Structures are given as structure tokens and as C-alpha cells.
Amino acid sequence: MNKNPSSGRPSRIHHWIAVIINTIVGGIVGAVFGSYGNLLLWLIGGLVLGTALGLANETLFNPARRLARWYKLRTVILVLGETLLVIYVLLPAYAAYHATHPARIPVVGSPADLGIAYEDVVLPTADGITLRGWYIPSRNGAAIIVLHGSNGNRTQLLWHAQALAEKGYGVLLFDLRAHGESGGTVFPVTNASPDIAAAMVFLRSRKEIDPERIGAVGLSLGANVILKAAAEDATLKALVVDGASTNKIDDLLPLPPQYRLMYVAAPMWWVADRMGEWMSGVPATPLVVLVERIAPRPILFISGNDAEEQFMNRRLYEHAGPTAQLWELPDTAHVGGIFTHPEEYKQRVLTFFDIALLGESPSVARTIICGRIRRLSNNASIATGFASRPPGIPW
């Protein structure tokens, strides 16, 4: 007979601690995932999952008295294990899913809004996907493919297209697969070269375009896409790479001394790589390898003020050969150069393509350009900061 009926109450309260903690942790994780969209759904899902894990813990371990006595330790181990699972498995898996299943943003507007004549185009890919876009006819024999970033569409490039078209370049803007109005439900982040191949087929079919005068501009994800495509197709003669990131953990390693603490995140990067490859169905190739294959074709790298972006673009620049250039904008957010420095951005990009595709002047010297460009009397471009290439990445 139990002489003290209340003696079991603290034990029962303790047994609910794991359930309560897991419910809270699940709700926090759900809210983090929900910050990308569908917050309420993710929050409810996280709370339900956390509660289920906590109840499973109590159901499995409470009948065993020895384990029940160690409820505090069990709770700590359980929460720690779940935290590691979330950080090193669930978060990178979700990031890979989010990248391969982008949100479709409606296409609103067209080049006509900027007073530019254009044609609607349909680009069939070799693997059966239909891409939709716009083409602005060339007046100088050269053409530029312009590519948007993740969760974007071709309207993101209208200002770039306007600058190029005013100089006479033909411009092909289209939505990558699984974006905008193009077909497909999965975007292969590790290799979207078939989309560029379809664009190249279209441009080569145009009589006004010299097939030896085709270049590309890519923003963010689009920058990675054109690097992969150019490594496979030597007829892409010049690239403007604005806001390139990483394609594989190999791009980041080895880390410089002040970033070595980030090695704790290496397992997360590795899992994200494997998940991205699995969801894309194509193995990833490090960008540093791709730019080495592209050399000696010229590449203009443009980097904003994000530390990781600067680090990545400096590393790519070092591997890209003697014709590469790097323009750093320390006062500019990711791919925002055309808005923070519109005239300098247009002049830099147009001069780059004029030299690379039209042969209007000798090759420019290989430089790192920081901040605003100023012109010297001999038309050389240097930075208001430092202009000569340092012997290595200045960490």
C-alpha cells in the first residue's frame, strides 16, 4: 500500500520534462524552416514532431527503472542528439531541397517596359524541358545570354539587358528550368548546362549573330550555371560572373586561418553536397576546377561585400588564369552592383565584352578592382584602393 500518494507526482512531472523540451525544440526548428515560407505549417509540424519524439523517449525508457532514474541525463542526451541531427542532417537536406525545388516567381513586365523591341522565344532542351524567354536582336554581331539567380526569373535581368541592348548586343533572357514560366519541377543545382546548350542552339541559328561572339552574364546561381556551361562549351567566349558562390565543399577548402573554426560545419557542407547531387541526379564539380578548364577565356568576377562571397570570388580569380579580372564592391550587397554603381557597372561590363567579343581594344591587365573605378589619361582602369594583384589572398 502506498503510504504517500503524492510521492509519485514529482517523478511523473520529471518524466514530462523531455516531452516539454522536445516540443519547444521542435517548434524552434519548425519556425527556422518556416522562415523560408509556410511558417504556420512548419511550426505546427515541428511542435508535433518534437512532442512525438519526447513521448517516444518516455515510452521506451520509463519502463526500465534504471534508465528512468537517469531522466535528466537522458533528456540532455536526447536533446543534444536531436540538435546534431537537425544541424548536420535536416538543415542541409532542407537547403538542398529548397535549392532544387525553387519557388516560382511570376514573370511581370517585359523589355517593352523599357522601350526595347524583343521576341518571345521557346527553347527546347535535349532532355525534353521547355524554357521560355525573350530575345533582343543583335545589331553588332554579338550576343549575350543573361541568367537570373535562384528563386528568380528573367525579369531580374531587365536592367542588364537594357545596357547591353543599347550598345547593340543581342540579349537572350530566359527562365531556367523550374523557374518562372519554364517547364520542369526540379532544378539540378549541380549541372544546368542543358539549359545553356538550348540557348546556344538558338543563338547559333540566328543569322545576325557570329557564333564566335557569344558571351554570358550570370547572377548568383546563374553565375554558377554559366561557369559549368562554359567549362563544357568552348564557344562561350566571355563571362561576367556576378555573385558566384560554391558548388561543392572542395571550393572552400582549405579555409584561411581566421575561418578555421568553420571546419565544425564541414559535415553539414558535405551532407548538403551529397543531398544536392542526389536530388539533381548529377555529380557536382568544384567551381575552382571549372574556371581552370575555362581559362584562358576571359572572366570578369564581381563580388559584393559579403565576406564569404569575397572569399569565394578571390579563390576563383586565383584559379581562372591571366585573363581573369575581379571587381570588388565593398559597399554593395549580393548582386546589387548595377543599382549601387549603375554607370560604373555598365561601363565595366560593356568594356569587358567589347574587348573580349568585338576586339575593340587590347586585353586589359589582370587586376583586382576595389570600390569605384576611375579612368586615367591612358584609359587604364585602376581602383581608388589597391589595383595590382597581391601575391595571394590577403587574409
Summarize the structure.
It contains 13 helices and 11 strands.
Written account of the structure:
- With 395 residues, the chain is of the alpha/beta class.
- It has 2 domains: 9-100, no CATH class; 111-251 and 283-383, Rossmann fold.
- Helix content is 44%, strand content 14%.
- The protein is built from 13 helices and 11 strands.
- It has helices at 9-15, 17-34, 39-61, 65-68, 71-100, 158-166, 193-204, 221-232, 266-280, 287-294, 307-319, 337-340, 342-358; strands at residues 119-124, 130-136, 143-147, 170-174, 214-219, 236-242, 299-303, 325-328, 368-370, 373-375, 381-383.
- The strands form 2 sheets. A 9-stranded mixed β-sheet has the order 1-2-4-3-5-6-7-8-9, with helices on both faces. A two-stranded antiparallel sheet has the order 10-11.
- Strand 3, helix 6 (158-166) and strand 4 (170-174) form a beta-alpha-beta unit.
- The longest helix has 30 residues, at 71-100.
Please supply descriptive tags for the structure shown above:
alpha/beta; 11 strands; disordered C terminus; Rossmann fold; 395 residues; 9-stranded mixed sheet; 44% helix
